[in-house]
Amino acid sequence: MITHIQGRLVEKNPTDIVIDCNGVGYSINISLHTFSQLSSEEQVKLYTHLQVREDSHTLYGFSGKLEREIFRLLISVSGVGANIARTMLSSLTPEQVMDAIAHNDLATIQSVKGIGSKTAQRVVLDLKDKILKVYGLDEVSSVSSNTNKNEALSALETLGFARKQAEKVCSTIVQNNPEASVETVIKLALKNL
C-alpha cells in the first residue's frame, strides 16, 4: 500500500524516526541497520512495509529494498513477528541473514535475542529455497568450502592452535579462495598463524 516515504527527517531514534512529508508526520519503526544507514541530511527516503492489524496500523521503514524483502520473508514464517524480524535485522545485516539461512547457520540465527532453536530451524526450513532461488546464491560451492574450512579448523586445533584465531584465518582464506582444498586452507593458515 505505502511503498516508500520521502521527506524531511524531523526526529531520529535508534528504533523509530519521524518523517515530515508535506505537512504530515509519519512515525516509522526502523532497525538498527537502517538507523546506521541514515545520514544526517534533512531529506530522506525509506522503503516501507505497512502492517495492518485489528488494533493498529504500523509502518516499518528500511534503507534499502533488500532489507525490506528480507523483513517480509521473515514475517512470513510462523512464529516470527514484526518485532522479532526487526530485532534480527538490528543484530545482523540483511546479507548476514541471507547467508545464515542459505548455509543452515542455526547458531547465527539463534544469536538473535528472542529466537530459539525451533524458530531458527523453522526460519531455515521455510526460507532457504526462497533465498537460494530469488538471490541466486550457489549453495553447493558454499557448502563444500564450509566443509573444507571446518576440516582445516579441526586439523589446526589438533596441532595446538587457538580455535578463535584459527577460525579468523580460515574464514579469510576460504573467502578469498572459495575453491581451496582442505590441504590448501591448512597450508595457507599455517603461514598466517
Radius of gyration: 20 Å
CATH topology of the largest domain: DNA polymerase, domain 1
Largest sheet: 5 strands, mixed, barrel
| CATH class value of the largest domain | Mainly Alpha
Compute the separation of the termini in Å: 54 Å
Q: Count of helical segments?
A: 9
CATH architecture of the largest domain: Orthogonal Bundle
In which order are the strands of the major sheet placed? 1-2-3-5-4
Could you estimate the helical fraction of the residues in percent? 40-55%
Could you list the spans in which at least 5 consecutive residues all have pLDDT below 50? 139-143
What does this protein look like?
- A hairpin with a 4-residue loop joins strand 4 and strand 5.
- With about 190 residues, this protein is an alpha+beta fold.
- It folds into 3 domains: about 5-60, Nucleic acid-binding proteins (OB fold (Dihydrolipoamide Acetyltransferase, E2P), Beta Barrel), CATH 2.40.50; about 65-135, DNA polymerase, domain 1 (Orthogonal Bundle); about 140-190, Ubiquitin-associated (UBA) domain (Helicase, Ruva Protein, domain 3).
- Helix 7 packs antiparallel against helix 8.
- Mean pLDDT is about 85; it is low at about 140-145.
- It has helices at about 30-35, 65-75, 80-90, 95-100, 105-110, 115-135, 140-160, 165-175, 180-190; strands at about 5-10, 15-20, 25-30, 45-50, 55-60.
- The chain has a 5-stranded mixed beta barrel with strand order 1-2-3-5-4.
